[in-house]
């Protein structure tokens, strides 16, 4: 019954590894997002997809590659992980691109890079 | 691009008192201003929002005011309760949502 789900919930890995986080929404929304929340709790948008198409790509290192196989899924692959990538990553979705629409967040994935 | 400033970063109020969190934004074209609450270890959740054609909106103990001329908006929580303790984020949206840096609200017994 979960609206926006993410896996895994926790991810602990060594520097230099490659990892993926998966996100799925069952709300029928067209738009999905990835946010990064650092240790100071700053929430920063990374990517936005609308109907599988990349709409927003903030100044994120190209080690981060999002993929949207269909509009209900948005995955995030990270290559060559660095210490500074440690954060909580939130997936979110909204009905569409138009303003004034609530964003629904997933439970978050806590990534720890050792 | 849009920039959202939020104050204070930390706020402690006695249970039963009111709490006010203030935000300013830079892009006068922004037209949607949501407020999210994030409890410890949980996801952010929308608690109230306001659109640029409205000056004030209230939902039980929570209210938001918007001053478009001054480009600032505020969250007011009255009769605070222990469960109001959380981090609150304001945000402004034009083509994408930009979040403020958050306010950690502590409700003191």
Tally the helices of chain B: what do you get? 0
Global Rg of chain B: 13 Å
Mean pLDDT of chain A: 93
Sheet with most strands of chain A: 7 strands, mixed
State the shape of chain B: globular
Report mean pLDDT of chain B, rounded to a whole number. 95
Give the fraction of residues assigned to helices of chain B: under 10%
Beta-strand content estimate of chain A: over 45%
Structural class of chain A: mainly beta
Tell how many strands the DSSP assignment of chain B holds. Answer: 11
> What's the end-to-end separation of chain A, in Å?
34 Å
Q: Tell me the overall shape of chain A.
A: globular
Low-confidence stretches of chain A: none
Order of helices and strands of chain B: EEEEEEEEEEE
Beta-strand residue percentage of chain B: over 45%
**Poorly predicted runs of 5 or more residues of chain B:** none
Radius of gyration of chain A: 13 Å
Distinct helical segment count of chain A = 0
The helix-and-strand class of chain B reads mainly beta
H/E series of chain A: EEEEEEEEEEE
Structure in words:
- The complex is a heterodimer of chains A (114) and B (109).
- Chain A is mainly β.
- Helices cover 0% and strands 55% of the residues of chain A.
- In chain A, the strands form 2 sheets. In chain A, strands 2, 4, 5, 6, 9, 10 and 11 form a 7-stranded mixed beta sheet that branches. A 4-stranded antiparallel beta sheet of chain A has the order 1-3-8-7, with no helix packed on it.
- Chain B is built from no helices and 11 strands.
- Chain B has strands at 4-7, 10-14, 19-25, 32-38, 45-51, 56-59, 62-67, 72-77, 86-93, 97-99, 103-108.
- In chain B, 0% of the residues lie in helices and 58% in strands.
- Chain B is globular.
- In chain B, strands 2, 4, 5, 9, 10 and 11 form a 6-stranded mixed beta sheet that branches. Chain B has a 5-stranded antiparallel beta sheet with strand order 1-3-8-7-6, with no helix packed on it.
- The chains are: A mainly beta (114), B mainly beta (109).
- At the A-B interface, strand 5 of A face strand 4, strand 5, strand 9 and strand 10 of B.
